[in-house]
């Protein structure tokens, strides 16, 4: 068992040192997201760009698009559940042109009052760059509530 575990660790280290192409990273991210969706029994919808989303409540207020400014309350975490960012319950306001692509694409899936989950591959997050406590090539999960379309 120790030998198998050691080989597994060596494989991880070797793969970690190897430069991964964007298509390889997309496949890795998709596998991670599919496993996370299965493990958490989520009814997620794929958009075709790598983004998955779950609508828990659609909301009945105004809709938005990628050019909108919105107020959203959110919690961002990794697939292991560790939180890397969180708004207050009152939410945060911003233009959807000034956020990660996963938000620009995902937030318009909800109307005002809508709540759900955005499951974002690294290419629609921070990609090969790290940002604060988010390492490069990180899959990101966000619980979101669209409070208001501004």
Structure, described:
- It contains 3 helices and 7 strands.
- The chain has 150 residues and is an alpha+beta fold.
- Strand 1 and strand 2 form a beta hairpin.
- The protein is globular and about 45 Å long.
- The longest helix is centred in the first third of the chain and has 18 residues.
- The protein has a single domain, classed as Chitinase A, domain 3 (Roll).
- Helix content is 27%, strand content 27%.
- Strands 1, 2, 3, 4, 5, 6 and 7 form a 7-stranded antiparallel sheet that branches.
Summarize this structure as a short list of keywords or feature phrases:
alpha+beta, 27% helix, Chitinase A, domain 3, 150 residues, 27% strand, globular
**CA-based shape:** globular
Count of folded domains? 1
Tell me the Rg in angstroms. Answer: 17 Å
Query: How far from one another are the termini?
Result: 57 Å
Query: What is the overall pLDDT average?
Result: 91
Number of helices: 3
Return the CATH class: Alpha Beta
What characterizes the major β-sheet? 7 strands, antiparallel
Q: Any idea what the CATH architecture is?
A: Roll
Low-confidence stretches: 1-15
Topology of helices and strands:
Layout lengths: L1 H16 L4 H18 L5 E2 L5 E6 L11 E9 L5 E4 L5 E4 L5 H6 L8 E6 L19 E10 L1
Antiparallel strand pairs: 1-2, 2-6, 3-4, 3-5, 3-7, 6-7
Concise summary:
By secondary structure, the protein is α+β, with helices and mostly antiparallel strands.
